[in-house]
Amino acid sequence: MRVLDVARGYLAVREAPRGSNRSPEIDRWLRAVGAPLASPWCAAFVYDCLIEAGLTPPKKSGRVQDWVDATAEPNRRPAAEAVAGDVLVFYFRSLKRYAHIGLVTGRDAGAITTIEGNTIATDDKGDSRAGYGVFEHRFLPSPNLLVLRLAA
Fold first, then answer.
1. pLDDT (tens digit per residue) in 86-122
2. pLDDT tens, 34-50?
3. What's this model's pTM, rounded to 2 decimal places?
4. Within a 10 A sphere around the Cβ of 66, how many other Cβ atoms?
5. How far apart are CA 75 and CA 94, in angstroms?
6. Do 78 and 148 contact (CB within 8 A), yes or no?
7. Is the separation of the CB atoms in 25 and 13 below 8 Å?
């Protein structure tokens, strides 16, 4: 799947310096969605991957909740229905909104596998929502996860 090939091509991207929300790629992604430099960049990463793959994101925005709001109800699915190429969004109760996003790469023994930007490595400690690079992750479906399926 082209979008996943694009995302995998960015697995080496890291903030420079770490914690800055900056790098040449990250700056380009943020500019593409009209977000200020040094902003959180998970949605800008997913946006860029979709555009590079010739797909249409639900919203030109660096704000995850905007993506959810712009996605028609039939294209919002429970996380248990995730398939490769879907967009996975994460709800944060403390923020009362969806505030992180990634691309579903597949399913593994019931778990959802993803590639995400602005996150941390699996073995790192810290806030996976405010990380320093592009990494792969694995999650069990939960009520805090929602799939956005791109309209055909």
1. 999 999 999 999 999 999 999 988 899 999 999 999 8
2. 999 999 999 999 999 99
3. 0.96
4. 17
5. 25
6. no
7. yes
